[in-house]
Amino acid sequence: MLPHRIETLAKSPYTLDELEAILADEVYRVCRSNLAQVAGEWVGFDVEWLEERICRRTSSPFRMFRRFNARRSAAHSWPEWEATKSGVAELRSTRANHNDS
């Protein structure tokens, strides 16, 4: 899963900081209750469901209050995110070097 995630994110137009903000402010906020469940979803989420939930959350009139997210400040220390972020940076660098040649 990690190589697929890295490949997908490396192709995106977002900077690493923007990707981290999306993870913390959008994806984590929608999926966080799954982390507390022993029998939660561990294979993956339905993309349409996830998109719908994120869009509903980000279009909420209360979204401005959600910007004050203590968990967001810790996103940079999540081991899985650190591995993903390093992989994305490395892949983008490799591609940039190949395009310069």
Give an overview in words.
The chain has helices spanning 2-11, 16-35, 47-58, 63-66, 79-100. Helix 1 packs across helix 5 (79-100) and helix 2 packs across helix 3 (47-58). The chain contains 5 helices and no strands. By secondary structure, the chain is mostly helical. The protein starts with a helix and ends with a helix.
Give a brief description.
With 101 residues, this protein is mostly helical. The protein has five helices and no strands.
Mean pLDDT: 80
- Rg, alpha carbons: 15 Å
Discrete helix count: 5
Give the end-to-end Cα distance, rounded to a whole number of Å: 30 Å
Shape: globular
Number of DSSP-assigned strands: 0
Strand composition percent: under 5%
User: Spans of 5+ residues with little confidence (pLDDT < 50)?
Assistant: none
Classify the secondary structure makeup into a structural class. Answer: mainly alpha
Helix content: 55-70%
Largest sheet: none
